[in-house]
Structures are given as C-alpha cells and as structure tokens.
Amino acid sequence: MKKLTLTLITVAIGMILSVPVFAFGPGSGRGPGEGMGPGNGPGYHRDAAWAKLNLSAEQKTKIEALQLDHQKEIRPVREKMFDKSVELRRMWLQVNPDKDKILALQKEVRALRDQLEDKATAQKLEIRKLLTPEQQEKLANSGWGRGMGFGPRGGMRGHGAGGPGICY
Questions:
Q1: Residue 94: per-residue pLDDT
Q2: Confidence at 47, pLDDT banded by 50, 70, 90
Q3: Which residues contact 163 (CB under 8 A, 6 or more apart)?
Q4: Per residue in 13-33, pLDDT tens?
Q5: Domain holding 121: CATH number?
Q6: N or C: where does the chain have the smaller number of CB atoms within 10 Å of the terminal CB?
Q7: Contact call for residues 35 and 166 (beta carbons, < 8 A)
Q8: Partners of residue 10 on adjacent β-strands
Q9: Distance CA 95, CA 102 (A)
Q10: Domain total of the chain
Q11: pTM
Q12: Is 72 within the bounds of a domain?
C-alpha cells in the first residue's frame, strides 16, 4: 500500500509540474520567424501589409523568393557581426582594455551593419520593381521603408517570434 501511494504521489507531482509546459501549447515562442506571426512563417504585420496591396499569386511567390534569398545572403554577415560584437564585449570586460583594438572592432561592426543596411535597401528596391504603380503608391502611404527609429510612425513595433515586427 505504501508503494502504491508513493507511486501515485510521484505521478501527481509530475503531472502538476508539467502543466505549465503544456499551457503554452504549440506556437512560435522564441525562434526563427518575423513579426507577431507563427515562428516559421511570415509575420502578422507583413501579411497585413501585403493583403492591403492585393498582390497576385505570382507577385507573392516572387517576393517570398526574394525574402528567402535575402535571409540566406545576410545570415553569414549577421553571424559575423554577432561574433564581433561578442568579442568587443569581452574586450570591454578586460581590466585594461586596449583602446586601439576596441576602436578597430567597433569599425568592423559598423562596416558589417552598413552591409546589412545596404542589402536591406537593395531587397526593398527589388520588391518595389515587382509592384504595379498603384501598389507602389499604397505601399508608400503605408509607411513601408521608414525603418526603425523613434516616434509614433517610425518607432519600434516590438519583437514577436524572434524578429522585428513591421520594420523588416
């Protein structure tokens, strides 16, 4: 009887401790993806923006392909920038940081950031080429391309499932 009670208590405790895990359910969590949408797909803000433009199936396919290519192209640059940033942080944690090395690393990080910005600009221009003049006008009026910043229109929209919201 004592063994059965101990087993039942152990099972009950295990079930109670696992409830929070299942409360979140399947979903995006923190992982790949952008915006506030599902973790592996397009984000909510992007879908809403594209829906307003009434894109054709062909346009959607081409834009998705451009975005996929863009992500593949910038991944190594982002990883390199991350590595340099970690290295820079470690240098600042040293007792006597080397000024010249810090300045050189900061310059490298800025150059990588500039590369990312240039690639993002190129991607946006490529996407614009796929749109009709009416769609381009709607896109311009929606605030697309303003990027991140401060203020009511250019401010950060928050981070959803692992990526920025409307400012991608």
A1: 92
A2: low
A3: 32, 33, 34, 35, 43
A4: 887 877 666 665 555 454 444
A5: 1.20.120
A6: N
A7: yes
A8: none
A9: 13
A10: 1
A11: 0.57
A12: yes
